[in-house]
């Protein structure tokens, strides 16, 4: 069964994938009524919005905030923007916690394979990283 948090992440993931997320100026006033409420922190909502709009710095900041100790990779070619995230079990700060809390594989795949996204057309690697992070957050929030 999917928990409430995962359901909110799924709604946000769907909105980001179709490019139909509500404008931040609107949502900052009514954030608890929108898909962006998946993030508890106003700062994380702003980072997610900025990543959605194309800020790679914001996308990296969001990963560091909501997935501490995870590593990420972003690439872009003329066809697509690609990204994945995975737990860094060797991280000196978070590695021990991650080893206890996060399974090494998810649904029979390594994390980097499970969260690997290919967003077409190319041009928004930040959105690809946002989608990858949301996929990881959904997977982590299952019973």
Keywords for this entry:
143 residues; alpha+beta; 3-stranded antiparallel β-sheet; globular
Provide a brief overview of the structure.
With 143 residues, the chain is an alpha+beta fold. It is built from 7 helices and 5 strands.
How would you explain this protein's 3D organization?
The protein has 143 residues and is of the alpha+beta class. It has one domain. The protein is 48% helix and 15% strand. It contains seven helices and five strands, in the order H-H-H-H-E-E-H-E-E-H-E-H. The protein has helices at residues 4-18, 24-27, 42-52, 56-66, 95-101, 111-114, 125-140; strands at 70-76, 81-87, 105-106, 109-110, 117-119. A hairpin with a 4-residue loop joins strand 1 and strand 2.
Q: What is the spatial order of strands in the main beta sheet? A: 1-2-5
How many β-strand stretches? 5
How much helical structure, as a percent, in the residues? 40-55%
Oligomer: single chain
Radius of gyration: 15 Å
Hey, roughly how much beta strand do the residues contain? Answer: 5-15%
Total count of helical runs of at least 4 residues: 7
Q: Can you tell me the number of structural domains?
A: 1
User: Distance N terminus to C terminus?
Assistant: 6 Å
Q: Summarize the biggest pleated sheet.
A: 3 strands, antiparallel
The stretches of 5 or more residues where confidence is low (pLDDT under 50) are 29-33
Mean pLDDT: 85
């Amino acid at each position: 069964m999917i928990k409430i948090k995962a359901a909110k992440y799924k709604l946000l993931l769907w909105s980001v994938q179709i490019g139909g997320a509500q404008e931040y100026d609107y949502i900052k006033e009514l954030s608890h009524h929108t898909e962006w409420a998946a993030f508890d922190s106003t700062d994380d909502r702003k980072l997610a919005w900025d990543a959605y709009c194309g800020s790679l710095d914001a996308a990296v900041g969001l990963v560091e905030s909501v997935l501490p100790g995870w590593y990420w990779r972003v690439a872009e070619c003329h066809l697509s923007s690609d990204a994945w995230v995975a737990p860094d079990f060797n991280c000196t700060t978070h590695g021990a916690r991650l080893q206890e809390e996060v399974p090494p594989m998810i649904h029979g795949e390594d994390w980097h394979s499970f969260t690997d996204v290919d967003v077409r057309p190319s041009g928004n690697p930040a959105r690809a990283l946002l989608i990858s992070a949301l996929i990881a957050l959904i997977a982590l929030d299952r019973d």
